[in-house]
Every structure is written in structure tokens, then in C-alpha cells.
Specification:
Layout (H helix, E strand, L loop, with lengths): L1 H23 L3 H7 L1 H6 L1 E5 L13 H4 L4 H10 L7 H11 L3 E7 L26 H10 L3 E7 L20 H6 L5 H15 L8 E5 L10 H4 L1 H11 L4 E2 L27 E2 L2 E2 L3 E5 L16 H13 L3 E6 L9 H17 L6 E2 L11 E6 L4 E6 L6 E5 L5 E6 L8 E3 L6 H4 L5 E5 L11 E6 L1
Parallel strand pairs: 1-2, 1-9, 2-3, 3-4, 4-5, 8-9
Antiparallel strand pairs: 6-7, 10-11, 11-12, 12-17, 13-16, 14-17, 15-16
Helix pairs in contact: 6-7, 6-13, 12-13
The structure holds alpha-D-glucopyranose (GLC).
The site of alpha-D-glucopyranose has 8 residues, from loops.
């Protein structure tokens, strides 16, 4: 009897433990629910800010120019962003149409924008002397934006971070020799403590962008970061947080929430094992993430608006980066672009937020990009090159109730299945719906036609 009840108890314990563990395993539906706000938001602001704003020649300047700590120290000793006004930043992001932001709490250089307990290499020890992160989080939250932190797994300042193939001191034999006993476990402890701090002291954190792994010879991957343990802690501290894919856990179930292509436009919706997955592309205004004074390949407002549309047309999110200056401002080039995008989005919000790739039955016409709003059952045709009077939509006949320009809700009449003089030459066909466009396009960056589907 005694034995039986012990076994019984054991089985109960086992069952409960299993149930608890299983409970943590999210179903696909729960995952979609957790990511719903993010999928609908479609557009966010990335902010890369750190000491590298001062040399103003790329956030990798320490690596590229192999700058030793002693020489990099000057930026720390003089860091003083006296014009920093996070309320202005938050307003600029909101007016541009962005729904969330992600800021580099620490980038590869190791400098921390908050008053971390675990290091002296932080903003509160610079001439500026105050925490930068809390006021930023508060300002963006006050504008209704969701909050995300970027935290660099890589650290080019920490004394226990082993030198590797991308470390600024990789070619310095003496430095390498002196650093040979560095213990990545001790570094991992620091990294875990800091992530814990970021996820504990700033209220609800909606996104976390951990950057990045480069496994293989002289590199670092999930064993170095102790990624599984780190992610478990993250999920425990902030159960609803949305996490990127750079922990080197691509094959681990639940090891990431979205894929992160950067600096190129994917050909189509990103898939893993042929299944469409959530994705967010992060992009720069010019070629650099950190403020780069002399970089001149700035994209135009038109290019950026098209980038946003194209991303959404393939089911993705756009995280568009600003690199604030060493004075703490968004420079004019960034402000102009944010404002230009905001002007467009003010009249075209319905074709972006809550939208995704169009159902397959709707093929995109030449020089157009399509998005689809499931909630409204409307299709949006973004016309990149305005055609002369007729826009032919093959396969659309019989499927459209009403059509209008989105910017001013003015009707666009259309013809279907029509016999007419030179009908074939005009492009009329059984399955074709032809929009009858005005000769002049509306005066907006990219005109959008809204189709109310039957
Ligand atoms: C790369 C770069 C980094 C930038 C990031 C943005 O990982 O190392 O400088 O922060 O991309 O995704």
C-alpha cells in the first residue's frame, strides 16, 4: 500500500511537471496572438546611438580602424549630448507613422545608455552624467509607441570578452596574448545580468533585438552566449516580448519570433522550410546605422515610401533607422525623410497598418505593388508609375464593388467585360477589369487606389 501510494505520488508529480512544461510551449495560435500588435504595426523606428556618434564615421569605427580602448576613451570622456530631447524624437517617430521603436541600449562598442549596476562604462559616468534610456522610454510610451531594446551580444570593451575574428584588437598579437585567459562564461554572466536589468527596470518591454552570433572559427554562438538559458530568462521576465533571431537558435523550437534580413529587399515573403514566417527588415536612411556625417547615399522619401510598401506587400515589417548626433539630435536629412514619409502615410494609413500580402488570386499589375487589408477586405494598388488612362487588372473582373483614390476618396470608375471599339487593343477581356484613371496622378509620393472587394 505504502509503495503504491509512493508510485501514485510520483506519477502525479511527473504529470504536473510535464503539464507545467507543456503549458509554456506556445501553440501557433498563441504565438500569433502575442505578435498581433507587431504584425499590424508594420512600421517602427530603429535608433543607433552611442559614443560612435562622435567620430561620426560608422558604429563599427572601433573595429574598422582597429582603435584601442585608450584611444576610444576620448569619446567617453567628452560625451555630452546637450540638445537631447527625447520628446522631440518620439514626436518625429509618431508623425512619421511609426508604431514602435527599438533603441541600442548597448552596441558592439560596449557603452551603455542606462545606469547599469554592472559596469562603469555607462552614460552616467560621462560629462552628460544622466541616464538616457529611461526618459526615452517614457517619451515614446507617452506618444503611444511600443518599446523595444537592442542589446549587443558582442562587446568590444568588456575585459572578459575573448578576442575573436571581428574584435578591434584581432590583429594585435600582444593584445591577444594578454587576453588569452579571458573567460567567456564570466562575460555571459555580465550579459545575462544586463539583459535582466533591462527587462526588469523599464516596465513592459515589447521587443528585444539581440545582436548577433557569428559561429565557427574564432567566432561566437549560442554556447558562448548561453542562448537557451538567456532566452528562457527573457521569456520568464517578459512573457509577451517579441524576440529576434540572432541568438544562434535558428533550429531550436521557440528560439526566435521573427527573421531579420537587413540592408536588402527580400524577393518575396521570407520562408523557413517552405512556411511563411514573420519577418522584419531593418534598413538605414544612408549606409550606416550610427550617425555618419560624410555618408551621402541617402535614400529619397520616394524610395523609402516604396520600401515600406514593398515590405508590407511581402508580409513584413520595416524598422527604419535613425542615427542621432553627438549633440543628441536627429539631423536635418533624417528629419526631412521622417516628415516626408509621415505626409504620405497620413493619407495612406489604411494601405499599410493591418495589411499584408495580397491573396494569390490578385496578381500585381505592371509597375504596381499590392497590399491587402484582411479586416476591411480591401485591396490597395500602389501605382509606382502612373499609366495613361487605363490600368488593366487581369483576373479582377467581377470581384470589385467600388474603387477610389485613397488620398481623397475620389471615385475611380472601371469597366469590365466590355465590348468597345478596339476592345482588344484597349486591353478589355472577359477576366479583365480596367480602371479609368485621370490623366494626372494625385499629388502624393505614391498614389494608391483602394479597391473594395465583393
Ligand atoms: C549588424 C551590425 C550592426 C547593426 C545591425 C542592425 O548586425 O553589426 O552594426 O546594429 O546590423 O541590424
Amino acid at each position: 500500500m505504502q509503495k503504491n501510494s509512493t508510485i501514485f505520488l510520483f506519477v502525479i508529480c511527473l504529470y504536473t511537471a510535464f503539464a507545467v512544461a507543456a503549458d509554456r510551449q506556445e501553440t501557433e495560435q498563441q504565438r500569433q496572438e502575442r505578435m498581433k500588435w507587431w504584425t499590424e504595426a508594420r512600421f517602427g523606428m530603429f535608433i543607433h546611438w552611442g559614443l560612435y556618434a562622435m567620430p561620426a564615421r560608422h558604429e563599427w569605427v572601433k573595429n574598422r580602424e582597429r582603435i584601442p580602448d585608450e584611444d576610444y576613451q576620448i569619446y567617453f570622456d567628452l560625451f555630452h549630448p546637450d540638445l537631447y530631447n527625447p520628446e522631440q524624437w518620439a514626436k518625429a517617430a509618431k508623425n512619421a507613422g511609426m508604431k514602435y521603436f527599438v533603441v541600442t541600449a548597448k552596441h558592439h562598442e560596449g557603452f551603455c545608455l542606462w545606469d547599469s549596476k554592472y559596469t562603469d562604462y555607462k552614460v552616467t559616468n560621462t560629462p552628460y552624467g544622466k541616464d538616457l534610456l529611461k526618459p526615452m522610454v517614457e517619451a515614446f510610451r507617452a506618444e503611444g509607441l511600443k518599446v523595444g531594446f537592442y542589446y549587443s551580444l558582442i562587446d568590444w570593451h568588456h575585459p572578459e570578452y575573448p578576442v575573436d575574428r571581428i574584435h578591434p584588437m584581432r590583429d594585435n598579437k600582444e593584445f591577444r596574448q594578454n587576453a588569452k585567459d579571458r573567460d567567456v562564461k564570466k562575460y555571459a554572466e555580465y550579459l545575462h545580468s544586463q539583459v535582466r536589468e533591462l527587462l526588469t527596470d523599464f516596465g513592459t518591454i515589447n521587443c528585444l533585438f539581440l545582436d548577433y552570433s557569428f559561429p565557427g572559427e574564432d567566432g561566437k554562438g549560442h554556447d558562448d552566449w548561453q542562448s537557451e538559458k538567456l532566452l528562457a530568462m527573457v521569456r520568464e521576465l517578459q512573457p509577451n516580448v517579441i524576440v529576434n533571431d540572432r541568438l544562434d537558435l535558428l533550429d531550436t523550437p521557440g528560439g526566435w519570433d521573427f527573421r531579420t534580413p537587413e540592408q536588402f529587399m527580400p524577393r518575396s515573403w521570407i520562408t523557413v522550410n517552405d512556411i511563411k514566417v514573420p519577418w522584419e527588415t531593418c534598413q538605414t536612411f544612408s549606409g550606416s546605422w550610427g550617425y555618419y556625417r560624410d555618408e551621402n547615399t541617402w535614400k529619397s522619401v520616394h524610395q523609402l515610401v516604396v520600401m515600406l510598401i514593398e515590405t508590407v506587400s511581402k508580409g513584413g515589417n520595416l524598422l527604419l533607422n535613425v542615427g542621432p548626433t553627438g549633440r543628441g539630435t536627429f539631423d536635418q536629412r533624417a528629419m526631412d525623410r521622417l516628415q516626408g514619409m509621415g505626409e504620405w502615410i497620413k493619407y495612406h494609413d489604411r494601405s499599410i497598418y493591418g495589411c499584408t500580402q495580397a491573396p494569390e488570386e490578385f496578381q500585381k499589375p505592371d509597375n504596381c505593388l499590392l497590399t491587402y487589408n484582411l479586416g476591411l477586405n480591401r485591396l490597395y494598388i500602389h501605382v509606382l508609375e502612373w499609366p495613361f488612362k487605363s490600368l488593366h487588372l487581369d483576373g479582377y473582373a467581377g470581384k470589385v464593388k467600388y474603387a477610389q483614390l485613397l488620398n481623397d476618396a475620389s471615385e475611380i470608375r472601371f469597366a469590365e467585360k466590355r465590348g468597345a471599339w478596339m476592345a482588344k487593343e484597349r486591353g478589355y477581356a472577359e477576366e479583365t477589369l480596367t480602371l479609368q484613371l485621370p490623366v494626372n496622378p494625385p499629388d502624393v509620393t505614391v498614389p494608391v487606389i483602394e479597391l473594395f472587394l465583393k
